[in-house]
Design goal:
The complex is a heterotrimer of chains A (about 300), B (about 450) and C (about 325).
Chain A: H1 2-28, H2 35-43, H3 57-66, H4 80-90, E1 100-104, E2 117-119, H5 125-131, H6 147-151, E3 157-160, E4 165-168, H7 178-182, E5 188-192, E6 199-202, H8 210-216, H9 226-230, E7 236-239, E8 242-245, H10 255-259, E9 265-268
Antiparallel strand pairs in A: 1-5, 3-4, 6-9, 7-8
Helix pairs in contact in A: 2-3, 2-4, 3-4
Chain B: E1 22-24, E2 30-34, E3 44-45, E4 52-53, E5 58-61, E6 70-71, E7 76-85, E8 91-99, H1 122-131, H2 144-147, E9 158-162, H3 172-179, H4 181-195, E10 200-205, H5 209-219, E11 225-230, H6 239-247, E12 263-267, H7 268-279, E13 286-293, E14 300-305, H8 310-316, E15 324-329, E16 336-337, E17 351-356, H9 357-360, H10 373-377, H11 384-392, H12 396-401, H13 412-416, H14 423-444
Chain C: E1 5-7, H1 19-41, H2 43-67, H3 78-88, H4 96-109, H5 124-135, H6 137-140, E2 143-144, E3 157-158, H7 161-169, H8 182-187, H9 199-211, H10 218-237, H11 245-250, H12 254-261, H13 272-292, H14 299-316
Antiparallel strand pairs in C: 2-3
Classes of the chains: A alpha+beta (about 300), B alpha/beta (about 450), C mainly alpha (about 325).
Chain lengths: ~300, ~450, ~325
Amino acid sequence: MTFILTAVLVLGATGLILGLVLYAVSRKFKVEEDPRVGQITELLPGANCGGCGFPGCAAFAAACVKAESMDNLKCSACKSEVMQQVAAIAGHAIEVGVEKIAVVRCSGSCQSRPRLRTYDGARSCAVAAMMNGGETGCFFGCLGCGDCVSACKFDAIKMDPETGLPVVDQDKCTACGACVKACPRHIIELRNKNKLDRRVYVSCVNQDKGPVAKKACDVACIGCGKCVKACPFEAITLENNLAYIDFEKCRLCRKCVDECPQHSIIAVNFPPKRVVEEAPAAPETAPVETESTENK
Amino acid sequence: MNTFKIGGVHPEPNKLTAGKKIETLGLPQQAVFPLSQHIGAPAVPCVEKGDVVRVGTKIAEPGGFMSASIHSSVSGKVAKIDTIVDASGLRKPAIFIDVEGDEWEPSIDRSEKLVLQSTKTRDEIIECIKNAGVVGMGGACFPTHVKLCPPKECTIDTLIINAVECEPYLTADHRLMLEHADEIIIGIKVILKVLGIDRAVIGIEANKPDAIELLKSKTSMVSGIEVMPLQMKYPQGGEKQLIEAVTGRQVPPPPALPANVGCVVQNVGTVFAIYEAVMKNKPLIERIVTVTGQNVKKPCNLKVRMGTPVSQLLEYAGGMPEDTGKLISGGPMMGRPLLDETAPVVKGTSGVLLIPEKDAIRREERNCIRCAKCVQACPMGLEPYLLATASESGDWECAEENWIMSCIECGCCQSTCPSRRPLLDWVRLAKNRVGGIIRARNAKK
Amino acid sequence: MAQKLYITTSPHVHCGDTIERNMRWVIVALMPALIASFMVFGLGSLIVTATSVASCLFFEWFITRVFLKKPSTLADGSAAITGILLAFNLPSNLPLYMIVVGALVAIGIGKMAFGGLGNNPFNPALVGRVFLLISFPAKMTSWPVPHQFTAYADAVTGATPMNLIGQIAGGNTAAMDQLPALKDLFMGGIGGCIGEVSALALLIGLLILLWRRVITWHIPVTILATVAVLTGIMWLINPVLYVNPLYHLCSGGLMLGAIFMATDYVTSPMTPKGMVWYGIGIGFLTVVIRYFGSYPEGMSFAILLMNAVTPLINNWCKPKRFGEAVK
């Protein structure tokens, strides 16, 4: 009996003393933290992706509280409502930003961009980009080793085994920009998400002269400039043999899409076009749910 | 016999062409001269489309202090200045020349006669080497005139001639020594004069007894030049390893240079080029290239004009075998893969190696089993397994702390890894990134 | 172009070494000890070894294929080695179900739970062995006396040299007379675990491993040297209580541990300097446990303890960098 009693007493006493020590220490060394930092941290996604330029969500929250305004502070992984709340807690005003999404600007699938050789080194675009032009004749396009996939903290980008190109899941993408940074070929761009997720963009970054680009890839932009002329809003510029659609100016009219002889301008999430010559009965179907990298 | 102390491996030598005399390859139809054939700034073209050039005409000027000029190796008309994919695998600007006839610059001495003496002063010699566009012929292509002017604060006492040729398969230097020993010895004397010292050591691996014999007999009457046979071990031809093997001195980690330990290292090919530049007034327009491989019909050592497409060399060697899996410019340990056979021969092309498909494919990568074989093999005393892991996870600080910038990319680690990890691929990536970080940091200061 | 070329950075050749080759030679190097064990303990040693190997292979296959749905890793030979090493650390009359449990712990907890070959912090065979030692102390510490060829469960057990050394150190100097001759210890012919009977057979294994460059000399030599030096000092101080260091070298699991268990690739340090410190640590702990611990044999615990500090050793003991000295 005394045996048990001693054990209970000793253990209890130890627990009590240690508890008191812990309490005393935590009181003595308590770090005074602005409660708003904790509140903001809870709102943030907590993926610590570093897209904001701070070493993690908590650091970003602290920076928000400390800063004079929210000018250079933006969690690209948060929805704009969340950023509003963050700004409110931190006591700053904020303009409503436009939601963005990562867009892969390369359509050089296995069919359209023939593989001339086999890359057999470490599975990393960064390594491949450092040593050579990749498996195809295109020195600008996707290398297909999936650095963007491993960079994505939100599981929003996947390699399509059929095309060998990355595909962005528009529901999961938070436009944090990690893939943009990871891509050694700078193929991925953050573009406006737009209404109904409809986007028009040049799906090519090849700066070669027309014939060279065309030889390397069936859907390469050859810099012919037809789209520039077709655009009624002056949203398209041509530089280094490459067309670029300014997403701020683009009004999604899709005139350029029809004009492009190489089919390198892509329109996603639009209802399929009615073919005029055919019977007018063809009903307009609902917008396509998933993003496709193919034009038609 | 001497050798370096840390690490090293013993790959199969496979010197298939050691007994093959140097043959001269015919002129190409079109010669291509990439503007960056050397370390440093690319050269700047000084000809335009349509210009007529002769053999030995300068077609590009150095683009800075660390740069080298480029000369036409053919006579003809400049067709265009465009881009070409060279051995780096990337597209580089290059001058294309359509060949017409074979007309040489009259200033070049084309006779076979040995020129023993020159009245040129030190500065004239350096100017001459610079004008001839001579670069290190071992593969790194460091502009030679820069290397021959070591920093003032370093006292040089030894010139080391790199005749090791530790890369398997390659025999270009070996043949050059056998067939042009006299020229090489005169070249060594020229360099000694430039450096103002009187001691030169020819470091040569023991697997070339005929060359050792020949050079020993030729140098027995020359004071100051010593032939030192070295134990066979890869990468003995690495500059730092060779200095250690010959003198026992270790070059401190970058940014230190061999000059900091009183040594200047020159490849035998470079020495020959210096001889031709100084004594014959002939710019660097030709080099010896070993065309080899297990299944090559006619492996050979060829004297090739710069700018000749690799396809022409392959044709001479009996064509590209059906089962070729890899086409490499250089040796199997450090050579660079060619994307196709249109790439031209440049100043650093020491060999063209064809690897059969069955040997070319890397085996599937497995987990690191921490066998420490890479640590034992590394000649720089690094931990490749750790550096590769740091690189994979993007931990550049860890890589820098563990001396990644010391890596000489010799490939010992990867060639011994039983798990077949692409260690060097990752280490190169990290080296590239860490190098960028260090440069940015220095720029800030 | 006729054929598609492969492109990779250098090096383009490989020395041909594989995980399988290394593991195969370890198995070959273990064979002399197995043969010696068969000569001494008879069929029991084969039954235990076969059971242990079979169950290790089964568990590895089961976990990779059924749980992880990955390609089987049986071919790399590491599971077979774990099986043999586990058996070598067991008495030759252990009930079969205990061996299966030991194999499950070794493969399941010791290895696969950490992500398979290359990721385990502790030597899997020793994890299994220590688990059995703690769970079934009686069975695990009664070793059959030699030369009972067909006996298994009914084998007669007796004291091993390790028990005796412990007793002598404890003050029972009379036990000194019961110690077997050194020759028997060296050649094999004393009681103990399956793998540790013959120091000679284990040394042959060491030579095979060194010859095939599977391991380097650093770990085994430093362990044996440390044990010899420490026990030698104690012997010189008091030869009545402490036995000749040769007894320590040739008895118990010291040779087996130093040659095959401590040199396990995955759990040993990466640099030569680290390997030396690791060896010294194991040797020191072994002597301490043998003389002052409650178990007569300390090798397993010494190796596991040093396995735990291997990451630290890797951090502290960096190889000598080229050019470091002339900084």
